[in-house]
Design a protein that fits this description.
heterodimer; A: alpha/beta; Rossmann fold; six-stranded mixed beta sheet; four-stranded antiparallel beta sheet; 12 strands; B: 220 residues; MetI-like fold; 82% helix
C-alpha cells in the first residue's frame, strides 16, 4: 500500500491551550478515514493542520514521502510559498461551504484551476464540467450560491475542491450546518468519492456514515488518538472507556429500524 | 427694503463662473482619485501587524479625521511652504489638504469593507492554494467593493462640497469666483444664491444615487 500522508508527533497549541498533544497517523492512498470525538477533542484542528490552515506547533506533516517545511534547530519552519503550493494539492470542504457568493457555481469550480493552477481556459472549462457533473449539479452551473439549497452549495464546494484534482480531501463537519433532509445528498456524494478511491479524511458526527464508508475510524480525545481501527472495531466493540461514553451519548435516543416500504 | 432680483451681472460674468465650475470639478476629481488610491494603501497599512506600518498610518488617519479641513488647507498653503524646500500654489495646497482628508476617510471605508467579509471567504481562498494577494484580489475585494460603494459615493458628495473651502486660499473655484464677481458687481444675493443652486444641481443627483444604492444593498 502506498502512503500518501503521514502525520508525525503533531502538537498544536493556541496560546496556553494545548489542543493536539501528539498525533501520529499514516494515510494510504485511497483510504477513507473518519475522525470522531467530542467537541473540543481537536478533530477540526487536526484536519486544519494537515493543509496548514493552522501551523503545527511541533511535529511534521509528510506528503508523498517529503516532509513539509525545513528543520531549523530541530523545529519545522515553513515558507508561505511552500504552504500555498501544498494547499493546492489538498482539498478542503468546510462546515459552512464558504462558496464565493459573487461567482456562479461554475465560476466557483473554475476558480482554483484558473487562479491557482493557471490552466488554460479550455482545461478550466473541462474541469468545471467534469466536476459539476460528478456532484450532479451540471444543471445548476449558472446559479449563484444564494440560489442554491444548503446541500447543493456543499456539493458545489466539493466540486470546487475536486477541480484542483487534489491528492487528499479533507471534510470538516461538511454536513453539520445542513438541514437534516439535505444531509443525505452530501453524504451520498462523499461516499461516491470514497468508492472511486479518493483519499479522504473526514470529521463528522454521522456515525452511520462512518460505519458504512470508513476504512478506518479514529476516536480523538483530549488531543490524542484514544482508539482506532475498522468501523466495527471502534463503533461496535470499543475498548476504551472514552469511546464507550461517546457512543453511549450518541445512542441514547435511537430509532428501531424504520419500515419504509 | 425691497430687493429687486437682477441676474444680468451673472450672465455678463458667465465665463468666470464656468472657469470656477470647471476648477471645482477638477479639484474634486483629482482629490477623489488620489484619495481613493492612497486610502487603499493606508487602509492596508492599518491592517498590518508591522508596527512601522500600523502606527504611522493610524496616527495619520486620526490626525486628518479629527481636524477641520479648512485648517488643513490653510496649513498647507501658509505654514507648509515655510518648512518645505519648494513653493506651493493654491491648487497644490487645496489638493494636498483635500486628498489627505479623503485618504484618511476612505482608508477607513476600505478597512470596514474588508472587515465585513466573513473569515470563511479568506479561508476558502487559502484552502484552494491562493496567495494572500490572490485571496484579496479574487475573493475579498470584489465582494467588499460592492459594500463600500455607497460610502465612497458619500465621500464624493462631501468632497464636492468641501472644495468650496479652497476659496480661502484664492484657488479660483466656483465659490472664489462668486466672491470676486459679487465684489465687482455688488450682487451678493444673486451670486451666492446661484452658486448654492449650482452646487445643489451637481450634488443632489449624486446624493440620490447613493440613496438608491443603499436601498438596493439593503434589499439584498
Amino acid at each position: 500500500m502506498e502512503e500518501v500522508l503521514r502525520i508525525e508527533d503533531l502538537h498544536k497549541s493556541f496560546a496556553d491551550l494545548a489542543v493536539l498533544k501528539g498525533i501520529d497517523l499514516a494515510v494510504n492512498r485511497g483510504e477513507t478515514i473518519v475522525i470522531l470525538g467530542a467537541s473540543g477533542s481537536g478533530k477540526s484542528t487536526l484536519l486544519r493542520c494537515v493543509n496548514f490552515m493552522e501551523i503545527p506547533s511541533s511535529g511534521r506533516i509528510v506528503m508523498n514521502g517529503r516532509a513539509v517545511g525545513r528543520a531549523v534547530d530541530g523545529k519545522q519552519t515553513y515558507s508561505e510559498k511552500e504552504l500555498t503550493r501544498l494547499r493546492a494539492r489538498v482539498g478542503m470542504v468546510f462546515q459552512h461551504f464558504n462558496l464565493f457568493p459573487h461567482m456562479t457555481a461554475r465560476e466557483n469550480v473554475m476558480e482554483g484551476p484558473r487562479t491557482v493552477l493557471k490552466l488554460d481556459p479550455a482545461e478550466c472549462a473541462r474541469r468545471a464540467d467534469t466536476y459539476l457533473d460528478k456532484v450532479g449539479l451540471a444543471w445548476k452551473a449558472d446559479a449563484h450560491p444564494s440560489e442554491l439549497s444548503g446541500g447543493q452549495q456543499q456539493r458545489i464546494a466539493i466540486a470546487r475542491a475536486l477541480a484542483m484534482e487534489p491528492e487528499v480531501m479533507l471534510f470538516d463537519e461538511a454536513t453539520s450546518a445542513l438541514d437534516p433532509e439535505l444531509v443525505g445528498e452530501v453524504l451520498g456524494t462523499m461516499k461516491e468519492l470514497a468508492d472511486e478511491g479518493m483519499t479522504m479524511l473526514i470529521v463528522t458526527h454521522e456515525l452511520g456514515f462512518a460505519y458504512t464508508v470508513a476504512d478506518r475510524v479514529l476516536f480523538l480525545s483530549e488531543g490524542r488518538i484514544l482508539e482506532q481501527g475498522t468501523p466495527a472495531e471502534v463503533l461496535t466493540y470499543p475498548t476504551q472507556e472514552g469511546t464507550k461514553n461517546f457512543l453511549r451519548g450518541h445512542g441514547s435516543f435511537r430509532l428501531p429500524e424504520p419500515q419504509l416500504d | 427694503m425691497e430687493h429687486v432680483w437682477d441676474f444680468s451681472a451673472l450672465l455678463n460674468n458667465k465665463q468666470l463662473l464656468l472657469i470656477g465650475l470647471r476648477n471645482t470639478l477638477i479639484l474634486a476629481a483629482v482629490c477623489l482619485g488620489l484619495g481613493l488610491f492612497f486610502g487603499m494603501l493606508v487602509g492596508a497599512a492599518r491592517y498590518s501587524k508591522k508596527p512601522l506600518l500600523y502606527w504611522p498610518s493610524t496616527v495619520f488617519v486620526e490626525v486628518f479625521r479629527n481636524t477641520p479641513v479648512l485648517v488643513q488647507i490653510m496649513w498647507f498653503f501658509f505654514a507648509f511652504p515655510i518648512i518645505s524646500p519648494f513653493d506651493i500654489d493654491a491648487f497644490s495646497a487645496a489638493t494636498l489638504g483635500l486628498t489627505l482628508n479623503t485618504t484618511a476617510f476612505s482608508s477607513e471605508i476600505y478597512r470596514a469593507g474588508i472587515r465585513s467579509i466573513e473569515r470563511g471567504q479568506w479561508e476558502a481562498g487559502k484552502a484552494l492554494g491562493m496567495s494572500y494577494g490572490e485571496q484579496l484580489r479574487r475573493v475579498i475585494l470584489p465582494q467588499a467593493v460592492q459594500r463600500m460603494l455607497p460610502a465612497f459615493m458619500n465621500r464624493a458628495v462631501e468632497l464636492l462640497k468641501m472644495t468650496s473651502l479652497a476659496s480661502v486660499i484664492a484657488y479660483p473655484e466656483l465659490m472664489y469666483q462668486a466672491k470676486i464677481i459679487s465684489t465687482i458687481e455688488f450682487n451678493p444675493i444673486e451670486m451666492y444664491t446661484s452658486v448654492a443652486l449650482m452646487f445643489f444641481a451637481i450634488v443632489f443627483p449624486l446624493a440620490l444615487l447613493v440613496q438608491r444604492f443603499e436601498l438596493k444593498h439593503k434589499a439584498r
